[in-house]
């Protein structure tokens, strides 16, 4: 068994092919709340300023983590000085449904409020883990696309 401390940041790299394009995912698992782990704050904030997208993950077994994810999102948007950014909302630990404190509809409603994709995931059973990462990559690609050009013609009111 490998020792794992979920209270500190960890990073991973994984080569993936999504929609026919191969790329490298550089993943930082912060596994801590904004209110905790202040020693890691500068490194975490630097990562949040320079990354291209974020999985916002809360535990379906913890109302506190569901509330804290709202702070995470606001913190990321503030750091990036923007109102939109590629993100996917994930309710993790779906394998612990009997201990659920957050319903799927609560997760869906929050994601819809923020205009984000939503998944219930399980790191243990790997349910929707790959799909959530792939969806994030697609959201990043969408954010890079230039805005649709306006069609010429039509009516102009002054």
The count of β-strands is 5
Would you give the CATH topology of one domain? Rossmann fold
Alpha-carbon Rg, integer:
18 Å
Helix content: 25-40%
Largest pleated sheet: 3 strands, parallel
Q: Tell me the β content.
A: 15-25%
**Regarding CATH, which class of one domain?**
Alpha Beta
Ranges with pLDDT <50 over ≥5 residues? Answer: 1-8
Return the average pLDDT rounded to an integer.
Answer: 84
State the secondary-structure class: alpha/beta
CATH superfamily of one domain: P-loop containing nucleotide triphosphate hydrolases
What is the overall number of helices?
Answer: 4
Q: In whole angstroms, how far apart are the ends?
A: 71 Å
Defining key terms:
5 strands, single chain, globular, two-stranded antiparallel ribbon, alpha/beta, Rossmann fold, 4 helices, 158 residues, disordered N terminus, three-stranded parallel sheet
How would you describe this protein?
This protein is α/β, with parallel strands linked by helices and 158 residues long. It has a domain at 38-144: P-loop containing nucleotide triphosphate hydrolases (Rossmann fold, 3-Layer(aba) Sandwich), CATH 3.40.50.300. It has helices at 41-50, 63-80, 104-114, 129-144, and strands spanning 10-18, 21-29, 54-59, 87-92, 118-120. A three-stranded parallel beta sheet has the order 3-4-5, sandwiched between helices. Helix 2 (63-80) links the parallel strand 3 (54-59) and strand 4.
């Amino acid at each position: 068994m490998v020792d794992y401390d979920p209270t500190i940041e960890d990073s991973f790299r994984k080569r993936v092919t999504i929609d026919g394009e191969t790329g490298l995912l550089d993943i930082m698992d912060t596994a801590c709340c904004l209110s905790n782990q202040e020693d890691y704050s500068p490194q975490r904030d630097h990562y949040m300023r320079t990354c291209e997208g974020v999985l916002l993950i809360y535990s379906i077994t913890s109302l506190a983590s569901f509330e804290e994810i709202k702070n995470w999102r606001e913190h990321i948007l503030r750091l990036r000085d923007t109102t939109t950014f590629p993100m996917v909302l994930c309710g993790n630990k779906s394998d612990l449904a009997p201990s659920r404190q957050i319903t799927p509809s609560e997760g869906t409603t929050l994601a819809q409020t923020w205009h984000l994709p939503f998944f219930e995931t399980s790191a243990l059973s790997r349910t929707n883990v790959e799909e959530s990462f792939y969806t994030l990559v697609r959201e990043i690609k969408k954010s890079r696309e230039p805005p649709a050009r306006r069609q010429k013609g039509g009516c102009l009111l002054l």
